């Protein structure tokens, strides 16, 4: 089957087309120009400058110390390496606490080369999403295990396990889409819940520890290359370097496995 990989650069409106046409989206984090070039040339659709950079690049225990300037620095480096992938940048901790702060941060990130910003949560963030979207800033929402809420959660734990939490997440997912988000990352939620949320929405869902029922998948670059970052390795992580034999080969193996539905399997998902 022909994929977007062989054709034109990704755009934000093309995300909904992909969902409608049943084409799975392959997303990877990147933080520098060289890795971004390899990812872009080997079939990655969406590149995320994640605030995970606080943990895998800067050596922190959480994403909380990451600043907008940090994300903008890495966004500039990555943007110069892309021809085809859509570039999404994280709004780091509390940079989206108010609509005005989120707008300032998003302007900085779009001017650095991002084409969409990602923010965590629903609740008061719905107003932030609406405010940004009304100002032509495309938004990716992020629900489930939202790492910026690690202090509230008391650790990095699977979310939506009981009935009430699952119902809340399902309602939040509908609410972020109604507020105007055009993509939704679901992190560490049971497969059945992520599958139900994916069926509820017309925007694509991207899973990480959310099972095979999402419209696409994302992994953190260092996890996908089997690099020891000093943090606990979550269940959903798979080392594609072992399979691919080279970094370019790992990217191709990951992209192929996401597109053909063989990753993630039950071993890399939560029941
Ligand atoms: O910061 C990040 O890399 C992320 C992904 C794990 C989705 O948010």
TrEMBL record:
Catalytic activity: (6R)-5,10-methylene-5,6,7,8-tetrahydrofolate + 3-methyl-2-oxobutanoate + H2O = 2-dehydropantoate + (6S)-5,6,7,8-tetrahydrofolate
One example GO MF annotation: magnesium ion binding
Range of residues in the leader sequence: none
EC number of this enzyme: 2.1.2.11
Keywords: Cytoplasm, Magnesium, Metal-binding, Pantothenate biosynthesis, Transferase
Catalytic site positions: 187
Pathway(s): Cofactor biosynthesis; (R)-pantothenate biosynthesis; (R)-pantoate from 3-methyl-2-oxobutanoate: step 1/2
Binding site for Mg(2+): 51, 90, 120
GO cellular component: cytoplasm
Alphabetical list of CDD domains matching this protein: KPHMT-like
Required cofactor(s): Mg(2+)
EC class name: transferase
Alphabetized Pfam families for the sequence: Pantoate_transf (PF02548)
Classification via InterPro entries: Pantoate_hydroxy_MeTrfase, Pyrv/PenolPyrv_kinase-like_dom, Pyrv_kinase-like_dom_sf
GO BP annotations, alphabetical order: pantothenate biosynthetic process
Compartments where located: Cytoplasm
Tree of life domain: Bacteria
Free-text remark on how the cofactor is bound: Binds 1 Mg(2+) ion per subunit.
Principal localisation: cytoplasm
Residues noted as binding 3-methyl-2-oxobutanoate in the record, renumbered to the chain: 51-52, 90, 118
Similarity comment text for this entry: Belongs to the PanB family.
Subunit description: Homodecamer; pentamer of dimers.
Annotated function: Catalyzes the reversible reaction in which hydroxymethyl group from 5,10-methylenetetrahydrofolate is transferred onto alpha-ketoisovalerate to form ketopantoate.
Designated name of the protein: 3-methyl-2-oxobutanoate hydroxymethyltransferase
Organism: Pseudoxanthomonas helianthi
Gene (name only): panB
């Amino acid at each position: 089957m022909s994929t977007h990989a062989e054709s034109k650069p990704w755009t934000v409106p093309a995300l909904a087309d992909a969902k409608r046409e049943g084409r799975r989206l392959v997303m990877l984090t990147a933080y520098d120009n060289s890795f971004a070039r390899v990812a872009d040339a080997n079939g990655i659709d969406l590149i995320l400058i994640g605030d995970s950079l606080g943990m895998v690049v800067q050596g922190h225990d959480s994403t909380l110390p990451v600043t907008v300037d940090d994300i903008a620095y890495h966004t500039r480096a990555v943007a110069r390496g892309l021809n085809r992938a859509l570039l999404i940048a994280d709004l780091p901790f509390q940079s989206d606490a108010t609509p005005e702060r989120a707008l300032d941060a998003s302007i900085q990130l779009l001017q650095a080369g991002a084409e969409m910003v990602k923010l965590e949560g629903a609740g008061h963030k719905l107003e932030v999403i609406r405010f940004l979207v009304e100002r032509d800033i495309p938004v990716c929402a992020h629900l489930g295990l939202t790492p910026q809420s690690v202090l509230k959660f008391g650790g990095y734990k699977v979310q939506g396990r009981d009935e009430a939490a699952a119902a809340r997440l399902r309602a939040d997912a509908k609410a972020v889409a109604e507020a105007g988000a055009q993509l939704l990352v679901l992190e560490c939620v049971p497969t059945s819940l992520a599958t139900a949320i994916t069926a509820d929405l017309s925007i694509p869902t991207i899973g990480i520890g959310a099972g095979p029922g999402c419209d696409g998948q994302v992994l953190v670059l260092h996890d996908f290359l089997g690099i020891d970052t000093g943090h606990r390795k979550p269940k959903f992580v798979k080392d594609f370097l072992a399979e691919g034999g080279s970094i370019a080969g790992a990217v191709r193996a990951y992209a192929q496995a996401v597109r053909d539905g063989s990753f993630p399997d039950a071993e890399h998902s939560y029941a």
